[in-house]
Amino acid sequence: MQKLKVKGKNILSGEIKVSGSKNATLPIIAASILSEKKIDLKRVPIVKDVVTMCHLLKYMGSKIKINYTKKNISINNKNKKFKNVAPYSFVKTMRAGVIVLGSLLARFGKAKVSLPGGCAIGTRPVDIHLFGLKKLGAKIKIKNGYIFAEAKQGLIGTQIKFPSISVGATENVIIAASLAKGITYLKNCACEPEIKNLTDFLNKMGANITWSGKREIKIIGCKKLKQVSHQIMFDRIEAGTFIIAGALIGKKLKILGIQTNLLNTEIKILRKMGVKMQIKKDHVNILHSPKIKPVKIKTEPYPGFPTDLQAQIMVLMSKAKGKSQIKENIFENRFMHVPELNRMGAKIYTSGNLSYIEGPQNLNGAEVMATDLRASVSLVLAGLIANNQTIINRVYHLDRGYEDLEKKLRKCKAKIFRIF
Q: Splitting the chain (420 residues) into consecutive groups of 10 residues, what average pLDDT does each group show?
């Protein structure tokens, strides 16, 4: 089994170009099922989850070509024998697999999709997905670990107010409603930039989707879809991860290929912590930041602080002089990295959805185990500032969402290597 070896205390400097967003790519690939026309996606992150999603569509009947050098994917779904089944073997490793449910229902009127897997960071039920699709007229039942959905007469536009904010449910219903008859009004939607990248993609294909408010969307169902070329937005979580790496042990580290206006909350909090940055429209320069201050934060849906950066900022909090606090409002089981960080010398304790971090602490290298995607990269960050050597097990979690992480860090003078 592959591991990462990190030798700490090497000052980071240089440039890191951020990859395309995994969280934008997955629903866009799922949405491509709606169309029989050719679809070209650019700036695609070639990570495990994206490859798995491509394999799922190939199983269903798509013709997909991945250009690993240019980071492009070409998709053609014109297949009369296209399957409307997403098996457990594909969906078990990634949460986003359930997003094909809305696409299959909209195009074929029926779908059989396995209940999803992914990181073990909470229950993350699909109830809100099914709530929205039922409102569009789908009949749904769950049996033997699968979702069976049917809409014999097609989906019908309606008014839907989500009972709580859900990124995946918003994406699933937007995709399904794009081909529904009539008009759909969605309220209490998630409004992450990745969802807006999805609606931009769908509109290029011929959908008629407008954001009528911060969390409100109007969708006029369409019948004809066009051939399209679309560029994936930058990965906000990767950008935030590398900015935090620079704050931890950087000296003139430049993070390129981003839109800083989409990172306002993260930048505001990091500045409050004493991180010295030069903010430009499309890049950030992180300067030496020796005096880190404690803060209290809470994770929230966008534009709040993202839960996907909670583990990473916790490492930075371990360098702050005083006590910091994180309130995790999105997932109920997302502090699994805490015992591993404590093994490295951090002083963190949790109570329910609250985590308290006392600093500053000197971390020491240890053999640790990744428990989920974002926890794995928090251990990499800890290893970068720890004395001696850190060995990180279960790096397959990391490979689900970070493209060329070791290569990007080594280019900036980090000593990090994969061992087998």
A: 94 98 97 96 96 96 96 94 92 86 96 73 70 97 92 96 96 98 98 98 97 94 94 98 98 97 98 98 97 98 96 97 96 85 97 96 95 88 98 92 96 96
Domain limit, last residue, from 189, 206, 231? 231
How far is residue 299's CA from residue 346's CA, in Å, rounded to a whole number? 21
Q: Is the peptide bond before 301 cis (omega within 30 degrees of 0)?
A: no
The tokens for 377 are 């990269």
> Which domain, by its residues, includes 411?
3-19+234-419
Structural domains in the chain (count): 2
Q: What is the pTM of this model?
A: 0.95
C-alpha 125/C-alpha 123 separation (Å) is: 6
Residues 126 and 263 in one domain: no
Rounded to the nearest 5°, which phi and psi values hold at 219? -125, 120
Q: Which residues are catalytic?
A: 119
Q: Are residues 330 and 379 both part of a single domain? A: yes
Residue after which a domain boundary falls, among 169, 198, 231: 231
